[in-house]
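User: Structure please.
Assistant: Input sequence and predicted structure:
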Amino acid sequence: MAPEPTSVEHAPHPGPEHRPPEPDRPFPRRRRRSRRWGRPHGPLLAFLITSGAFCAAWAARGAYPFGATGRALNDQANQYVPFHRALWDLVHGHAAGDLLFTWHGGFGQQFLSDYHTYLGNPFSWTAVLVPRAHVDLAVFAVTPVTMGTAAAVMTVYLGRLHPGPWWQRGVLGACYGLCGWALSDASYIPMWLWGLVALPLLGIAAQWCLEGRRWPGAALLVALAWYGNFYTAMMATTAACVLLGVRLLTLDAPAPGQRLRAAWRAATAAGTGIALTLPLLLPSFLSSGAAQPTRAGAFDPVRIDVFLAGLLPATHLWGGRPRLYIASLGLILAGAFVLNTSIARRTRLVWTGAALLVAASFQFPPTQYAWHGLAVPNGNPYREAFVLSGMLVVLAWLSLAHRPRPLHLALAAGLPAAAAFVLRRTDDFGGWTWPAVLGGGALSLLSLVLLRLGERRRFLVPAAAALMAAVVFAESTAAAVNADARRARERWAKPAATSNRSITNHFAAVRAVDGWPAHRTDSGAPQTSYNDALALRAQGPQYYSSYLPAATYQALEPLGYGYKNDGRTLFGADNPVLDAIFSIGARVRPGSAPGTWTAVRFPAPPLVTVRSAPYTSPHPPDSVYARQENLLGATVYEVPRTARAGTAGGQRLTARCAPGSEAFWYSPDLYGTVSAGGREQPLNGSATGVTPLGGVPASGRVDVRVRTRARGGPVGAFPLGCLDRLALDRAVARLTATGATGVETGGHTVEATLPAGATGTAVFAMTAVPGWRCSAPAGSFHGLVSVPLSPGTRKVACTFTPRGLTPGLAAAALALLVLASTALTSLRRRRRA
């Protein structure tokens, strides 16, 4: 790489009218390295502007930790903070599980794929460096740190494309780190933000391949990009292929075979780098295939006016809209690139054509699916928007490095202003867009004019530099404030608490009754997050993950557990029969005072029980109560027929049960309320599991009133079940007496010692997800892991290994061998030379 010339800052240059257009030279002549080349001034400036602007927006909004407004949006509260707390527990030795498996949530689930997806951002490890009570603050800090790092790496990449002053590259790097995708779409998603870093990383790797050097380094950069998050890394890799293709097409008089050799080096580096991540990537891919499927709609491109509006600074359109903008400075320079005659015509045509083709590919379903790995995005369909912002910043840098004329800059500045006027009536055109386009654009144009005048009047250069950095900082801060404020108006983005006195007391209550693995502890309801079991170190059914296996959903949904997100989010159910089936021996409930929690213990069978003979419930087989009895192996319910009568706004149901029994309700299709005995409870469709209604009075009459909203389905044929507590106690005592006398669990193993003479089938209180291997061929007992017992069996054991881990490790070892051998060969060659 050529040293950075200092003459741009300290000496005037002849104008473009006195020199021919400069061809694209990926291989500049080697000169003696300047001491200043390795200085981190540019990357540091980019980092400070980017992270500072984002934190300034937090402070302006009064968001935590700069105020009382919550920061945890959507999945940040439900997934990312709980998973980072699970990582803290794992590193500090407090987790029930290891990197491959967790016993916290879902009655035991794979963890490796979740780690790769939700915790892959290297900065996520900062969460383990703080006290557990402050993990959420560390998660919030990952955002500005990752965005700042992306800006710094982009600054380095821009220097690889063309030499120029460090501060100019730093300011444009900040334009990339503060792009619309980062501010509006991914600011609360730490793992996706790594894609913002991955794009310039892969650009540097492609440049090394183009220059015919540092092949091992290029492969390692690919591995680093894919390690952080394979989803956005896949998009960044596609964009890097475009960048490499542009560079190959713009080569000036290439040597014979140069393009082919560069493409081969890039392909092999990419393949080797991706292979290094296969121990994480392959299990994640297979886990995704085994996950509970979701309903994804077809891609519906937005109107062209909405698409173009997304290019204007400080816009935040509602819903799944493209947020493509960069700061006005970058937008003006990118527009001037086309007009800059100091750049070779072929270079301008190829770069401009590539940017337009990338933008057009966002609007066509086939290419959109290609960007997203041939999958339909579940949510915002423009998740690859950051790659276009990156290309615009590249165009801006090439334009700035070739000193555009003031006239061209003025024409480029007028284009966003004209577009804003034409698009001003687009859906919810941002109130901050006009100040950004007019004010930010005018100040950006002024700074560029001052910079051009500084070629002859050096004292103007510092003023131009300060103004350029200030306008990007201020405009991006305003854009971030606008995005935060407008997003907060959407129901899904209402901030949730991730730390307060109630959560602290809840965690303490769970710890007070923890008895794992002798029994499970359910953290109870109401939940703070969908992953309370992870966040609070409980072992209940609560779990929310894109990799939640279909086998887990198919085992738990028929038993009356609540769910949402098409089954990828599981909730608990306060039901004694389910507690007995899954060895739950403690439960936490809200206390009488606000913010307090109480814990109760009760007898529970061991984690491994023995079923000597098959059992079939006498109740209707499509009843949730019959399915629970089949798994329990005993009759404990009375399932009465109900008399129904319509009322204003709902129904009234009556039935007769044994006095003293406990009534339960299950209607997964209803939205509204259910009341019995003067107690009213909400019904939220499938999210509401089996619900206790209270004791049956001495009359034996159960009177239930249901009030429904327009949304929802029928009550169901058998919504009521009356539990005989004495019968359940007898069933629990029998399962305890015949079950395991001792259970030991490791990170991803479970071993049980059985009583002498045990026959039949050993049933493990965990769902039969793919990956379990047991001491005998494992089967499924109503969805749970089971092992047939041969005569004399005293111990049974199971080990969980994620599918794809072994071949992934083998492929990574081979890739590492190739990488090491290549590096050693290159080192020997240099020593001989």
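Residues 736-800 form one domain.
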